[in-house]
Write a structure and sequence with these properties.
By secondary structure, the chain is α+β, with helices and mostly antiparallel strands. The chain is built from 15 helices and 18 strands. The strands form four sheets. Strands 6-10-11-18-17-16-15-14 form an eight-stranded mixed beta sheet, with helices on both faces. The termini are close together.
Length: about 500
Amino acid sequence: MSTQSFSEQEKIRREKLQKLRAAGIDPYPAPLFPVSHYSADIKAQFTEETKENFARVSLAGRIMSINDKGKVFFIKIQDKQGLIQLYVKRDELYPGEDKSAWDVLVKHGLDLGDFIGVTGYVFITKTGETSLHTQTLTLLSKSLKPLPVVKRDEEGNVFDEVTDPEFKYRQRYVDLVINASVKETFVKRTKMINSIREFLNAQGALEVDTPVLQSIPGGAAARPFVTHHNALDVPFYLRIANELYLKRLIVGGFDWVYEFSRNFRNEGMDRTHNPEFTVLEFYVAYKDYFWMMETTEQLLEKAAIDVNGTTEAAVGDKNISFKAPYARVSIYDAIKEHTGFDVSGLSEEGLRDVCAKLGIHTDKTMGKGKLIDEIFGEKCEAHYIQPTFIIDYPIEMSPLTKKHREKEGLVERFELMVNGKEIANSYSELNDPVEQRSRFEEQAKLMERGDEEAMYIDYDFLRALEYGMPPTSGIGFGIDRLVMLLTGQPSIQDVLFFPQMRPEKMD
C-alpha cells in the first residue's frame, strides 16, 4: 500500500483546507464564475474618462502574491492575460460586526497558487497602479502544493525563471504558471500553425485526416513503434508519415490536400528529435518541386511575419532571414564544397572509403543512399544557417521520388536546411507504379541486410498508383523545428507542452 508524504507547507495547506470546510466554505465550488474582464484589457483601456465602463468588474485568476497590511490586503492575481492587483479591505468585504469569515478565508485561508474570483470597481492607487477595489471574494480552488518561488520586477515580469529541465518538462503545468515567456512560446506556436493553415486554405487546399494506426508503416525511412490490434489479432504500427495516404487522396481526385499530423518514430532523443512530433504534409496535383520551392518561400515568409512581425528570426547569436528567395545547392556540390570529395560517381565501396577517410562510422546495413546521407549529415548540414534548398538527390536516397528530368541517377527532391537542420523535405512525386514497385523491392533488400529504417512494401499503395496518379509535388515540414526557429528556442523539448521523458517513480 502506497503512502503519500507531505512537506511542511503541504501539511499546513491541508490543515487550512479542513478549517475552510469546517467554516462552511467550499474550497472547490461547482457553480460557474462569471468573468467579465481580463487584466491586460483593463490596464490598457481604463482612464478617468472610461471609468464608468469599469464600475462593475468580475475577474478570476490564480494568486501570485499577497501583501498583508492587517485590515487591508494587496493581492495580485494572474489570469490568461497577465497580472493585476486587487485592493481587499476587511470592513468593505465584511461590513458587519462578525469578522470571522475574513479571518478564516482571507487572513488565514488564502495561499499563493489559490484561484479566486472577485468583483468590484477599477481605480488607480496613489502609486499609480491600476487595481480592482474588491467588493466580493470567492475561493474557487485551493492549491495544496506551493508554487516555486521566482523573482519579479515591479511590473510582475519574471527575471529569475526556473530553468531546471527536469522540472520544466515534467511539470509543464507549473512552468507555464511561473514563467510567462514559456506561455508566449506556445502562443506563438499556435499563431504559426494558424498562419500556415490560412495560407493553405486561401490557396484552395483541403485539410484532411489520415490513419495514425497503420498496418504498413510507410512514407518514410524510420523505425516504427509496434502495437497489437486485439480485435483483428494482427500487429499495427504508429504512423511514421502520412505521405502514402495523402497520395491515395490525390489518386482519388483531390488536387491539393494537407494534414497536420502527429507522427511517431522509435528512435533517439536529442535537441532536435522527439519520438512523437508534429509534421505538416501537403500534396498538390500537376505541380513539381520547382513550384514547391517557390510555394515554400511564400509560406515561410508569411508565417514568420504573422508570428514575429518580421521575416527575421533571432536564434541564439544568429539572425535568420525567411525573406525569399532562398539559395539552391545540389547535394553533390555541397559534399564537394565541405569535404573536398566528389562522390557523384562512386560505388557503395567507394563511398565507404570516403566515409573512412572522413572518420564517419558505417556498418554493413548501409547502402549507397544511407552512406551519402551520413556524409552530408556529418560534414555539410551544419554549414547551412540561412534557409537553403539542398536539391537533386541520388536515386538511392529517395525511393518515392521521380527521376530527374535531365540528370541521370538523380531525383527531383529538395530538403530545406535552416540553422544547420532539415526543416522540410519535398519531391516531384513518383507516379509510375512499375518504377515504384522496383524501388520498394530495393528497400526490401536493404531491410534484409538489417536496415531497420528501410521502407516496407505497401501493396495497396502500389494498387492505388496503378489506377493512375497525376503529376504531383509533395512536401513535409517539421513543425516543431520550425517553431524552434521562430521562437528562438534551443531545444525541441522547449516547444512541446509535454515532451517524452523517462517515467517518473511516484510515491
